């Protein structure tokens, strides 16, 4: 039932249609989601592009699978990317890219234009993309765009998300991934032997939270904006 609700949420808020039975994996937090994504696609020695400043866990996450971080330093205040910045990294050879949007710690919200540019490079060079979208509803301006929703990116994108930031339950460790049928099957094999499953009672609570409706997200963002 939770996977069905997540699929409905993805269609409503992200314009993404996925099969809850074969494309959604509920896991123990977005952290596990990121790890099973990396364990599914990264071999020792594979290079992974990370945009700096970045969330501190990405480097040790990569170390657990023997991945090599390639750091592209972005500049304030817009933290923007250009084709000229991306080209040398892709030419060098990448297996995957990690994108955090909205980003921790900069607050950068990737624009549709930037994501389309990155998608074009990933498509041309055959690179996977992992998108960490845990802050998608804590948005002050602009729009949140998921890479998975862009044409042609469904087969090479893994969305990592969760409930901790949106519903203020960081200690519950409840997250999920969205990916193609093939990638989801691979991640589920790892998830099954890593944690078996996320706690069932908390999944029922998350299902109730997803039924709050759009008003909850709008009010939450307004509350954060007022405090900001």
Structure, described:
By secondary structure, the protein is α/β, with parallel strands linked by helices. The chain is 42% helix and 16% strand. The chain is built from 8 helices and 7 strands. The protein has helices at 2-14, 29-41, 58-63, 83-92, 112-125, 181-194, 200-210, 214-227; strands at residues 24-27, 47-52, 68-73, 96-100, 128-132, 157-162, 175-178. The protein has a 7-stranded mixed beta sheet, sandwiched between helices. β2 (47-52), α3 and β3 form a beta-alpha-beta unit. α4 packs parallel to α5 (112-125). The mean pLDDT is 96.
Features:
single chain, 228 residues, alpha/beta, seven-stranded mixed sheet, 8 helices, 7 strands
Supply the number of helical segments.
8
Instruction: Calculate Rg over CA atoms.
Output: 17 Å
Q: What's the total count of β strands?
A: 7
What does the largest sheet look like?
A: 7 strands, mixed
Mean pLDDT comes to 96
Distance between the termini: 36 Å
Sheet/helix structural class: alpha/beta
Percent in helix:
40-55%
Shape field: globular
Low-confidence regions: none
Summarize the structure.
42% of the residues lie in helices and 16% in strands. It has eight helices and seven strands. Helix 2 packs across helix 6.
Write the layout of secondary structure elements.
Blueprint: H1 2-14, E1 24-27, H2 29-41, E2 47-52, H3 58-63, E3 68-73, H4 83-92, E4 96-100, H5 112-125, E5 128-132, E6 157-162, E7 175-178, H6 181-194, H7 200-210, H8 214-227
Parallel strand pairs: 2-3, 2-4, 4-5, 5-6
Antiparallel strand pairs: 1-7, 6-7
Helix pairs in contact: 1-7, 2-6, 4-5
